[in-house]
Amino acid sequence: MKELLRRVTSSPLIAVEMIFGSFLVNLMALASPLFVMQVLNRYVGQGVDATLYTLTSGVLLAVIFEFALRQSRMALARGVSVGPDEAIALQAFGTLTTARVPALDKTPPETRKEIVNGTVAIETAYSATNITIILDAPFSILFIFVLYLIEPLLAGITALFVVGVYAIGMYGHTKLQAITQTLQKLSGDGGALLSTATREADMIRSFNAGDFIRRDWHAHITQAQKLRRDMNTTQGLVQTLTGSAMALLSVAVIAVGAMLVAAGKLDVGAMIGGNILAARALQPITRLAGLGAAFARARQSMQVFDQLDAVEREADTGAIISGYTGRLEFRDAAFSYPGSKLSIFESLNLMLEPGEVLVVIGNNGTGKSTFARLLLGLIEPVRGQILVDGLEMKQLQPGWWRRQVVYLPQEPALLNASIRDNLLINKPDLDDAALAGIVERAGLKRYLDESPEGLDTIIRDNGWRLSEGIRRRIALGRALASDGQLVIIDEPTESLDDEGCKAVYRVLARMAEQKRTIIVMSHDKDIVKGPHTRLDLNFKPIPKLEKFGTRLLAKPVPQIEGPDERKAVET
What we know:
Blueprint: H1 2-9, H2 12-29, H3 31-46, H4 49-98, H5 101-105, H6 109-112, H7 115-125, H8 128-136, H9 140-150, H10 152-199, H11 201-206, H12 210-262, H13 268-289, H14 292-309, E1 328-335, E2 345-352, E3 357-361, H15 368-376, E4 383-388, E5 391-392, H16 398-402, E6 405-408, H17 419-424, H18 432-441, H19 445-450, H20 468-482, E7 486-490, H21 498-513, E8 517-522, E9 528-529, E10 532-536, E11 544-548, E12 553-554, H22 563-569
Parallel strand pairs: 3-8, 3-10, 6-7, 7-8
Antiparallel strand pairs: 1-2, 1-4, 4-5, 9-12, 10-11
Helix pairs in contact: 2-4, 3-4, 3-13, 4-7, 4-8, 7-14, 8-13, 9-10, 9-13, 10-12, 10-13, 10-14, 12-13, 18-20
């Protein structure tokens, strides 16, 4: 109800209009039982047709007026819901795309995956129809009050039924809330299993893992189906009890009313009209009790979104350096992952002047890719500073800083969009001539020429179904589009054929000629020959720093021969 109050009070004028409209709607609803009472007491007893015509005309006008009011109120309720529903969906997804990576990593995967389902649950619970049901519920008192004026005993019986049905609804809501919470956590596990079954089909078959994953799925389905059965049972119980309550109320009102009629304390018209009034008093409460499951799911989803909303976001403001030169410095920097006893590095002091080359080497798992993430500002050192042209990196505007970096990760992921969109994502204003140059330098031209859609070819599954070589070439083109002063390439020739390796080396050569600062991560310590600094992460906790070379030459690619190719890899 807190969310409903927030939505309604966000537009006070509309709230007043809906409440006043609800009052008029329920006031018009009194016309039907009053019509029945008047017809039975006046027309049936006297037989004057004019009386019947007048009563019928009046009740028809009331019904038409009630219909118009309900439609107007429904439109207002839709207006109240549209904005908040959209805001919640955008805010939740926005958090996923703007949260700081370490903070997001602490959020359970099932919480992050709940956005779509959670948005639908909230929209369903706070739909215009449900809002009107909630607005009608308090007006049960109006019908009970009118019934009290007719016969206090019948009003008392109706009030007891209203309280009883409301209690049943609260019981159902509480029980469904607990089931929904457990089911939501379970859905995250199911999502992970489905993802494995769909994305890792080759692995499952190659290593005969089908029995293993099917056992996990069987256990998941068994538990999930039991929870859903419990939910359906609870919902069915609530619906049965409320339906029975409606029938029992009618029996009670007619039985007691009949005794009062026999005793001469009530007439037949009042008894029939009282029965209708009692039903109208209980009806909105029974409808409200039936919303328990919807509100349970919505409440759980709101809790999920509150968790997401509490995640720390990256700053969208910060310093911008005019004319970044490429200078980079680590000053007594250290990094370790939360909860890990092993540091990636400690006490790192390193200065890279514009145009210098750093080679970061280390075995798998020593932290080369982590070092790249630090350079991009995705994570921060636990101690010390990273300085960019003398300014601490965390003071920079993150979006601006990442546009200064030519970055090729070891395992690049792509957007589910066209190749053109992927290449231009970090620099959408790039003209066609510059884009064509990037395609050529990244070694993509032949692939695009052979693709029917060319640059408009749509990438699926974030590029993971493309060959690794093509995926890395597209990622290289995306990196080149930024045209930044700092070049970060993680395992530059991994999964590339000879043509792809040539493209990477040509890029490195050109960047070196332009005096850009180059950082290469590799397990191969001989990837670069010439003047460079080598950072060896195999040494823990303080990495080893060495200076090498007199002339920078990227390591030749196997099977590359001839003076032209040799010149292409000189940097």
